[in-house]
Design a protein that fits this description.
The complex is a heterotetramer of chains A (133), B (254), C (579) and D (150). Chain B is α+β, with helices and mostly antiparallel strands. Helix content of chain B is 35%, strand content 14%. The complex binds flavin-adenine dinucleotide, protoporphyrin IX containing FE, iron/sulfur cluster, FE3-S4 cluster and FE2/S2 (inorganic) cluster. The site of FE2/S2 (inorganic) cluster has 13 residues of chain B, from loops.
Chain lengths: 133, 254, 579, 150
């Protein structure tokens, strides 16, 4: 009987929870974190190829010289940027609990810092991509 | 300066404006009844309501005049007992603290998340209260009792005032993305109640509590998403309290 | 097919009174607490203003003054020895709560702070005194939480969301157990015990405008009454002057304690006319009646001219934020009124039941004028009538009642456990409950309980509220008769076993009807005005004939007979109640 | 019916129990693995702010971006012990930081303890292997093993 009662709803998450901005910033933080660590796994391997000599390594880096990779590269930089800025925000709130009382200001500030720096980075890198084409 | 009579006219005028006529409200309610089906379904009800009606009374209208099987918990009807936390238009709130006016003509109501649904809007509160119990939510002071009161300055008292307001409604814990993923996480409500004692100058059990809270299910699972603070119907600065607890574990100071 | 549980002691209800008794009991004997709500959902948590004791922390005060105020506040229907005992034990009871961790507000020197409250005076009515200990305006919340915390500490056994539906008595009349309905499964349980403490709270839900929770339906008194226990002073119901208009949500008297003023639609501070000495701090019944009078004379505001106003705009915003945060929020949330610069529309609201299950000062339920205790049966809190509140309870005296008499009931119930054997329960203990539930469940079509409830509440509000008369009460009696009869044909749509709140709401309505009937019959008999009971056909107090308690009991044929018992007097001689 | 479930928040039998001394162990310090990992995440985060963000910006922003990167580029860069240490620290901290992040995620979403353990082991082994691999390369890389092709 007990187990029948305790059945969890299958479609528990049918609708989105309209949470605090912090819910979304955390989600992005998590997603960018995972993206970056997955990239890192790959990056260690590709860099390690250098141990097999210039031919091997340059073959790898050659593969990177195409626009699609550059778009991914832009994504990576933005991810690191976002994760870092949001990570700093989290760390600040962790070490100064009183900031939690001003989360609006803190959250907005970090968002602005990200948007501005992301815009600059995107600008520069897009230009590079365009130049390359 | 305005005389009382002036102030009065103002407020009466405002109220008269606010209470203008009934509105039609469509409720979309997520239903579940294991006696009927193992799956949940949606029901829609249309009711007339005053803009200043509480949503819990609208639910009563449905239960009393449309479908008696609709089940939900409620008691005080003014936000003090913590019975009726539910997911209203995608946000946790007490149905008795949301007015028709606040939610517009269409309202979606679901049970709070992360706790097993037992019937309609009723969820199993036991895991939630179990979390509460693990943080030793009672004053611990074994160094003798005075004849009268223990002294405490107004500042010391103010230190934990915010977290004494908790009514254990679970709105915070069931809004926490971490709790949705893992109900082993002790959850913001338990931490709020731990905070209430950790920062009480009369308490001597804080070390014990902090040890419990620094375990894998404890306070370090919090990712500062602030959903809890947003959801708390008592306006408790939940995340701030959690951060203070983290800090006091870090520095072993309280 | 019901599960039987055996304990030494049972507590029915997990509000302030129930948990206070449970703490006392569970330290000594095997105890279970049965509650239809999770403990912290109990309505004790709604109490705002404070809990009083003559601690003398902020100014001179004495238990004896407190006892006097209680007796006078109760319009001399108070049993004076009980009031004296309560005022004396108050002091330790409060210190005990503090030592259990209750976060009272503090004085500058770190002691429990105290505030003024209606009817509490120094030197026998000379001037208001600071006697109410408080924790902002959530004193009841803190008491409830603190007591629950102590229960958690003691690992008290709770049966949550179990509805007590029947009392079991043995052949000699002793209480030997209860029948409870488990909401989660729809199962019946039999609980046997040597001592049973009823602490089920009030029954304000019989009125349409009330500060009481939906759950306050008089279950305890009704269950006892159906098993032959008389109900005392049921006509004595308190109507609190400052309920939020239409909703009844309470704005604590603390608002007036901190300097709030009641005004009519012209902005006049009319209490100056009714109680020149203490004005807005007059006891609740007087302020409620004054509001009624103002409304009757055309000075009420609002769309129907039946509102008065609470004015706290002149208070320091800091005081409002620090000492009245919750009630400020109520006004903002529910009426969208900003109390710091607007007047809050108010209406008297059904608030507190002075009457209930008759007990002595040890919480033992007593029968008849001779006060013979029913072995094993106890009651405490709002469902009980000790009677310390007489005809009108003073603000802050109820929370005190819970802890003082909750404790005393627990102590005596534990003593009884140690002395008495486990009594027998009847052969088929669940018979009556089953037939009651099945009758409703099996009926395919019939009356809608909600209609009956609504009519009961609306009529009680019109006919048995602040002002009553022979005419209104006899009319109400007839209406209740009709409603009872219709209730016999009630049908519900939820026939399921799990969380059948439809069924339980219906059962609760039955309890309410019984309590309302007892109230109206008693009120009709009392041909005088005293405290909360005001008859405009008998506007004066009549000590010669009515210095006595009413005891209503139900006969087998459903009719009600009234009995009386004298008020226990003491040092205070009844005099006119002027403030 | 014996199968009744008792829904309540205690399982006790209602019997009185002796008071427990909660303050006894109060001299032991608080904290533990979760605290240190939590702290590590923040501190490594701050260091990574310089190392990782610096690394990405330096590598990807100046004109040419990753297109400049080839054997020669790395050889020149790693001629300086400063950049070698930089990259090694970045490697180490980012791996620990990232893998602990993944551990946190499994705590949140992987309910079965066995599966969770397995997932974490995969991450640890992978992380350790990459750490060893990376370290060997950073420490032992010597461009003179491959004389310039041109
Ligand atoms: C809004 C408000 C403000 C107040 N402010 C003050 C104040 O400032 N000072 C003051 O002194 N007093 C105040 N009072 C009065 C005081 O709070 C109550 O009288 C008191 O709390 C009643 O406590 P109780 O323990 O008797 O009942 P409650 O706290 O109401 O508890 C009743 C318990 O009984 C249980 N129960 C009921 N029926 C059943 C059943 N059939 N089976 C099982 N369990 C059942 C319920 O689950 C609940 O746990 C206030 C009251 C209200 C409504
Ligand atoms: C190569 C670089 C990095 C990688 C691979 C990485 C990866 C991760 C991952 C996977 C998480 C777990 C996310 C979660 O639990 O929700 C995480 C958390 C975190 N990261 Fe990073 N990160 C990197 C750089 C940084 C930087 C530069 C900072 C900036 C200060 C930072 C700060 C944090 C913080 C504070 C957390 C904890 C947040 C939380 O627990 O919710 N990280 N990181
Ligand atoms: S902290 Fe707030 S939201 Fe959480 S349980 Fe307490 S009152 Fe409810
Ligand atoms: S929602 Fe959860 S993640 Fe932390 S800030 Fe609140 S507990
Ligand atoms: S009914 Fe009590 S909090 Fe809503």
């Amino acid at each position: 009987m007990a187990s029948r009662l305790r059945k969890k709803q299958k479609d528990d998450f049918g609708t989105a929870y309209r949470g605090h901005e912090g819910q979304w910033s955390w989600m992005f933080h998590r997603i960018t974190g995972v993206a970056v660590i997955l990239f890192l796994f790959a990056h260690v391997v590709d860099t390690a190829v250098i141990g097999w000599g210039p031919e091997a390594y340059d073959r790898v880096t050659e593969a990177y010289k195409n626009p699609a990779v550059h778009v991914l590269e832009l994504g990576l930089v933005l991810a690191v940027l976002y994760h870092s800025i949001n990570g700093m925000k989290v760390t600040l709130i962790d070490f100064f609990p009183s900031l939690a009382g001003h989360i609006k200001v803190v959250g907005r500030t970090s968002a602005i810092v990200f948007v501005v720096s992301a815009a600059i980075v995107t600008g520069i890198m897009t230009k590079q991509i365009i130049d390359l084409l | 300066m305005a005389t009382p009579a002036d102030v009065l006219q103002d407020s009466d005028a405002r109220r008269a404006g606010g209470a203008a006529g009934a509105v039609t409200l469509t409720l979309r309610i997520r239903r579940f009844n294991p006696e009927i089906s193992q799956d949940s379904w949606w029901d829609e009800f249309t009711v007339e309501a005053d803009p200043l009606d509480r949503l819990v009374e609208v639910l009563h209208q449905v239960k009393w005049y449309h479908d008696g099987t609709l089940s939900f918990r409620r008691s005080c009807a003014h936000g003090i007992c913590g019975s009726d936390a539910m997911l209203i238009n995608g946000r946790n709130a007490l149905a008795c603290k949301v007015l028709v006016d606040d939610v517009g003509p269409r309202v979606t109501i679901e049970p709070i998340r992360g706790l097993a649904v037992l019937k309609d809007l009723i969820v199993d509160m036991d895991p939630f209260l179990e979390g509460y119990r693990t943080v030793l939510p009672f004053l611990i002071n074994d160094s003798g009792e005075p004849d009268k009161e223990r002294l405490q300055s107004a500042e010391e008292r103010a230190r934990f005032d915010d977290t004494t307001k908790c009514i254990l409604c679970a709105a915070c814990t069931t809004s926490c993305p971490i709790f949705w993923g893992d109900e082993g996480y002790i959850g913001p409500a338990a931490i709020v109640n731990a905070h209430r004692f950790i920062f009480d100058s009369r308490d001597e059990g804080s070390r014990e509590r902090l040890k419990i809270l620094s375990e894998k299910t404890g306070v370090f699972r919090c990712r500062t998403t602030f959903n809890c603070t947003d959801a708390c119907p008592r306006g408790i600065q939940v995340t701030k309290a959690i951060q203070e607890v983290k800090r006091s574990i870090l520095f072993d100071r309280f | 097919m019901a599960t039987t549980h055996t304990y030494d002691a049972l507590v029915i209800g997990a509000g302030g009174a129930g948990m206070r008794a449970a703490i006392e009991l569970s330290d000594q004997v095997r105890t279970a607490v049965i509650s239809k709500l999770y403990p912290t959902r109990s309505h004790t948590g709604a109490a705002q203003g404070g809990v009083c004791a003559a601690l003398g922390n902020t100014e001179e005060d004495h238990a004896e003054w407190h006892a006097f105020d209680t007796v006078k506040g109760g319009d001399y229907l108070t049993d004076q020895p009980a009031a004296q005992l309560m005022a004396e034990e108050a002091i330790d009871a409060i210190y005990q709560l503090e030592r259990w961790g209750l976060p009272f507000n503090r004085t500058p020197d770190g002691r429990i702070d105290q505030r003024r409250f209606g009817g509490h005076t120094a030197e026998h009515g000379e001037r208001p005194v600071r006697r109410a200990c408080y924790a902002a305006d959530r004193t009841g919340h803190m008491i409830l939480q603190t007591l629950y915390q102590q229960c958690v500490k003691r690992d008290v056994r709770f049966f949550n969301e179990f509805y007590c539906l029947d009392l079991l008595r043995d052949a000699h009349g002793a209480a030997t157990g209860v029948v409870a309905y488990e909401l989660a499964t729809g199962e019946l349980h039999i609980f046997r015990a040597k001592s049973i403490v009823f602490a089920t709270g009030g029954y304000g839900r019989m009125f349409s405008v009330t500060s009481n929770a939906h759950a306050l339906t008089g279950d305890g008194p009704a269950v006892a009454w159906r098993r032959g226990v008389p109900l005392e002073d049921m006509e004595m119901f308190q109507f609190h002057p400052t309920g939020l208009a239409k909703l009844g949500v309470l704005l604590s008297e603390a608002a007036r304690g901190e300097g709030g003023i009641v005004r009519n639609k012209d902005g006049e501070r009319f209490m100056e006319r009714y109680a020149p000495t203490i004005k807005d701090l007059a006891p609740r019944d007087m302020v409620s009646r004054a509001i009624y009078q103002e409304i009757k004379e055309g000075r009420g505001g609002g769309p129907n001219g039946d509102w008065a106003y609470l004015d706290i705009t002149h208070l320091d915003p800091k005081v409002i934020e620090e000492k009245l945060p919750d009630i400020t929020e109520f006004a903002r949330v529910y009426l969208k009124v900003e109390p710091t610069n607007e007047l809050v529309p108010i209406q008297p609201t059904a608030h507190y039941a002075m009457g209930g299950i008759p007990t002595d000062v040890d919480g033992r339920v007593v029968e008849g004028a001779a006060e013979t205790p029913i072995p094993g049966l106890y009651a405490a809190g709002e469902c009980a009538c000790v009677s310390v509140h007489g005809a009108n309870r003073l603000g802050t005296n109820s929370l005190l009642d819970l802890v003082v008499f909750g404790r005393r009931a627990g102590v005596d119930a534990a003593r009884h456990v140690k002395e008495a054997p486990l009594g027998d329960v009847p052969e088929r203990p669940t018979e009556r409950t089953l037939s009651m539930l099945n009758a409703v469940l099996e009926r395919a079509e019939g009356e809608n309980a909600a209609d009956i409830r609504k009519e009961l509440q609306a009529n009680m509000f019109d006919l048995a509220f602040v002002v009553r008369s022979e005419e209104s009460l006899s009319k109400m009696e007839t209406i209740i008769g009709e409603l009872q009869e219709r209730f016999g044909r009630v049908a519900i749509s939820d026939k399921g076993a799990l969380y059948n709140t439809d069924l339980m709401e219906t059962v609760e309505l039955g309890f309410l009807l019984d309590c309302a009937q007892a109230l109206v019959v008693s009120a009709r008999a009392r041909t005088e005005s005293r405290g909360g009971h005001y008859r405009d056909d008998h506007p004066l107090r009549d000590d010669a004939n009515w210095l006595k308690h009413t005891l209503a009991s139900r006969n087998d044929d459903g009719s009600i007979s009234l009995d009386f018992k004298p008020v226990k007097m003491g040092p205070y001689v009844p005099m006119e109640r002027k403030y | 019916m014996a199968t009744t479930i008792e829904r309540s928040t205690t399982s006790g039998d209602g019997a009185p129990r002796p008071p427990r001394d909660y303050t006894r162990g109060s001299e032991r310090p608080v904290g533990g693995f979760e605290l240190w990992m939590w702290l590590f995440m923040r501190i490594s985060g701050i260091v990574l702010l310089v190392l990782a963000l610096g690394h990405t910006l330096i590598m990807h922003l100046p004109s040419g971006g990753v297109d400049r990167v080839d054997f020669g580029f790395v050889a020149t860069r790693w001629a300086s012990p400063f950049w070698r240490s930089w990259d090694w620290m970045l490697l180490t901290l980012a791996l620990i930081h990232g893998i602990n992040g993944l551990r946190n995620i499994t705590l949140d979403y992987v309910r079965k303890p066995g599966t969770r353990f397995a997932a974490n082991m995969v991450f640890y082994v992978l992380g350790f292997t990459l750490f060893v691999l990376g370290t060997i390369i950073v420490v032992t890389f010597d461009p003179s093993n491959w004389p310039p092709v041109a």
